[in-house]
Every structure is written in C-alpha cells, then in structure tokens.
Amino acid sequence: MYRSLPFIFALFTLPAWADDITKLQEESRAVALPFMKQLMGENQKAVSEGGPASAVGVCKTIAPKAAADISRKQGWKLTRVSLKVRNPLLGTADAWEQKVLQGFEARLAKGEKADAMEFAEIVKEPAGNSFRYMKAIALQPGCVSCHGNAEQIPADVKARLAEEYPHDQATGYAPGQIRGGLSIKRAL
Ligand code: HEC
Fold it and tell me: Which CATH number among 3.90.930, 3.50.4, 3.30.450, 3.90.470 corresponds to the domain 5-187?
C-alpha cells in the first residue's frame, strides 16, 4: 500500500509538470525568436552595407551583448553554443547542450529541417531544478562568408579570423546545417 504511494503521486503530478513545460517553453520561444530575428537581420544588413568583413561585429559584439542583456533582464542564462566553436569561452556546449545538439544532428540526418528544431526539458542538478530549452541555429546563405568552406570565405575575412581566432573550428558549414543552438537555462 505505502509502496504504491509514490506512483500515485507521480501520476497526479505528471499532467501539471507537462503544463509547466509547455508554459516555460512558450515563454522561452517568445524571447528566443526575436533574438534570432534580430541577429539574422543585423547580419544581412551588415553584409549588404559593408561586405562580409564588416559583419564580423554582428556575431562578435552584437550577439553576445544581446544575449547578456536578455540574461540580465530575464534572470535566465541565454547563450549561443556549438559542437564546433569559434569562441570557446562563450560558445562551448555543456554536457546537456552537447547531448541536445547531437540529437538535433540525428534529427537532421533523418530529414527534419533545422529551422524548426527545438527541445525542452526540466533538468535536476545538485543546486536544484532548472528548465532548459534549446533552439537549433540553422546556417543561412549569408553565413557562409564566415562559416562556410575555404573558397567561400573572402581573403580579408580569413585573415581577420586567423588573427583573432587561431583555434577556429566553426568553418565548413553549408546552408541548412546546424551551426549551433540558442540555449536557455532558467532556475525553477
Ligand atoms: C562576418 C563574419 C560572420 C558572419 C557573416 C557570421 N558569423 Fe557567426 N561568428 C563569427 C565570429 C567572429 C564568431 C565568434 C564570436 C565571438 O567571439 O564570440 C561567430 C560565432 C558564432 C556563433 C557562436 C558559437 C561559436 O562558434 O563561437 C554562432 C552560433 C554563429 N556565429 C552563427 C552564425 C550564423 C547563424 C550566421 C549567419 C546568420 C553567422 N554566424 C554569420 C563571424 C561571423
């Protein structure tokens, strides 16, 4: 009798848990989508106005600053992470993020489009539970001048990348591939 109590408890709490995830996920999307839109827009604008080399600032300055502003404002941690990073300090994925990004790669291999991919979960950690959300960042045609293959990256951009990021791993991507993920972590 007592042994079955935890099960009964689990059954009753499950739907509420699921509701929580849906609500948390919607709140994350409401923050993630404008952030992604802003970056894609700024990137396009910079490339068309000043050429690829001038767009370096979008990924280097605007994106980390916008992520930091949102993190402070929301009280969440919002970052861009990848399995192949250019900036290891900001971009390295933790264990959960690596697992999710690998899951995205598997979904891509099965034919799912990267643009719409997302994953959400409540994660238990020593310091407490947190809600974690990740949205795939798909490579757009405008990104290849800095994240594409050697022939697609103009010489001036290549020189700047070689100087500033001598350990760069973030090249060789084609449009539609997964450059990384937008990751949100929120303490519950
Ligand atoms: C003009 C060059 C340039 C273009 C164009 C560009 N990026 Fe980047 N990208 C960079 C640089 C430089 C960094 C490293 C930023 C830093 O120091 O944190 C970076 C970092 C990133 C990161 C963070 C993970 C990492 O590797 O450090 C993601 C995600 C990313 N870029 C996605 C994109 C996407 C998606 C596009 C197209 C919409 C794009 N980038 C276009 C130069 C560029």
Answer: 3.30.450
Q: Checking DSSP bridges between strand 128-138 and strand 77-81, what pairing results, if any? A: unpaired
Whether 4 has a pLDDT exceeding 90, the answer reads no
Whether residue 181 has its Cβ less than 6 Å from ligand 1:
no
pTM: 0.90
Q: What is the mean pLDDT of the chain?
A: 91
Torsion angles phi and psi, residue 22, rounded to 5: -60, -45
Q: How far is the CA of 143 from the centre of ligand 1 (A)?
A: 8
The DSSP output letter for 150 is G
Does any ligand 1 atom lie closer than 6 A to the CB of residue 86? yes
* Cβ of 64 less than 6 Å from ligand 1: yes
Structure token pair of residue 157: 């951009």
**Which pLDDT does position 1 carry in this prediction?**
45
Q: How far is CA 39 from the centre of its chain?
A: 12
Helix (H, G, I), strand (E, B) or coil at 112: coil
Domain extents in the chain:
5-187
How many angstroms separate the alpha carbon of residue 184 from the centre of ligand 1?
18
